Amino acid sequence: MFDKTRSGRMDLFGFSALWEFMQRWRALFQHYDRDRSGCISGTELQQALAQMGYNLSPQFSETLVRRFSVPGSRPGIQLDRFIQVCTQLQTMTQVFRERDTAMTGNIRINYEDFLSGVIFSVFNALP
């Protein structure tokens, strides 16, 4: 996400930007973790993402919670998984916007373009 050259490396400016985003995401997470459980629910996730500008359905937010919850732990998403969701959404949104040149919210892509975007966003979000 902060590797503008897509070389797999991040310079000091990229790291600084990443650190600032992580601090904002942490503050947002803490704001919506109202019961201070260390986890946010699907509803809380939807509200947090809406504050970030993502207009996502409650069903999609619950899907994200199911996908990113740690098995065997409290229900909901913990901070580290929330940051993962944020980085993946931001990266995938960036890929989408590159193809949505008319800014209509719709794109038409072939299968390989889709896979390229998904692979780029998923593998860049892996530790």
Automatic annotation (TrEMBL):
The GO terms describing molecular function are: calcium ion binding; calcium-dependent protein binding
**What positions does the domain EF-hand occupy?**
20-55
Q: Where in the cell is it found?
A: Cytoplasmic vesicle, COPII-coated vesicle membrane; Endoplasmic reticulum
Arranged from A to Z, the UniProt key words for this protein are: Calcium, Cytoplasm, Cytoplasmic vesicle, Endoplasmic reticulum, Membrane, Metal-binding, Repeat
Q: Which GO terms describe its biological process?
A: COPII vesicle coating
Coiled-coil residues: none
Segments traversing the membrane = none
Membrane topology listed for this record:
Peripheral membrane protein
Q: Name one Pfam family in it.
A: EF-hand_6
A GO cellular component annotation here is: ER to Golgi transport vesicle membrane
**InterPro entries, per database record:** EF-hand-dom_pair, EF_Hand_1_Ca_BS, EF_hand_dom, Peflin/Sorcin_CaBP
Matching Gene3D superfamilies: EF-hand
Q: What is this protein called?
A: Peflin
